[in-house]
Structure formats: structure tokens, C-alpha cells
Amino acid sequence: MYTPRMGWTYWIILHVIAIPLTIYIGTLFRNRERTGAR
Predict the structure, then answer these.
(1) pLDDT digit string (tens) for 19-30?
(2) d(Cα 36, Cα 15) in Å, to the nearest integer?
(3) Percent residues over pLDDT 90 in the chain
(4) What 3 state SS string does the chain have?
(5) Which residue from 7, 13, 21, 22 puts its CA 20 to 30 A from 32's CA?
(6) TM spans, by residue (predicted)?
């Protein structure tokens, strides 16, 4: 039987990992654009 707790934990872990990753990638791309412009 599928438990909703498993879904919630997976959803939380996925966001906890994904949100900082997207921010980190975004900052890297901004830094690359700044260095590329110079």
C-alpha cells in the first residue's frame, strides 16, 4: 500500500536539493556572462 509520507518526504527532499542547485547554477551562469563580457 502506498503511504503519503513517502511522497511528502520525496517531494521535500527533491525541493531542498533542487532549489539551492538552481540558485547555484544561476549564479554560475551570471558569473560566466560577466567574465565573458569582459
Answers:
(1) 999 999 999 999
(2) 31
(3) 50
(4) CCCHHHHHHHHHHHHHHHHHHHHHHHHHHHHHHHHHHC
(5) 13
(6) 6-29
